[in-house]
């Protein structure tokens, strides 16, 4: 009986030990399965995140490309608009210049004044006509000023143009029908240095006028104002 009792106890211990080993194995297996399931879910979630990120990056690249294309289009439009504005500005500038040339607007600017006067000395028995200012003298000054870049010219304050006519009538000069006595002040708007240099060049207009007994005085002016032609303002 004692021997049998020992076997019964041993068998019981073995049974309990086997149960504990089996339970421990099942518990460990379940935990591993749950861990594997959790790992699979995390991987699936990361995979989805990665795919979403890749898709978003692709969308961003397309949007960026569209932005570049639109920016390039805007730049082209701005350049075209700038060209059109420049053309318009040039047209307006040309119109203003034409209005200035035809005498429709008052003009002012730097320039020079050329005063032509009859000679103060006339020898006895000399021909007086050889010692006074004639229309050719005035015309030669005007031509030289125009060639040198004068923008506007006037004689004794009267604007002249490409079709103006100057006639000598005795002691006076007629400019487009208006008579002016000597001295004659030719005002010209333009670069004073250029205009002055053109008239004072050796053997130029000034020397020719002096040789023909015409008194010549040239002054640079910081501002000359020429009124528009009467009736054209």
TrEMBL record:
Keyword Coiled coil: yes
Matches recorded under InterPro entries: DUF881 (IPR010273)
Keyword DNA-binding: no
Pfam family, one: DUF881
Coiled-coil region list: 53-94
Keywords: Coiled coil
Lineage top rank: taxon: Bacteria
Stated family: Belongs to the UPF0749 family.
Protein's name according to its UniProt entry: DUF881 domain-containing protein
Taxonomic source organism: Bacillus suaedaesalsae
Phylogenetic lineage: Bacteria, Bacillati, Bacillota, Bacilli, Bacillales
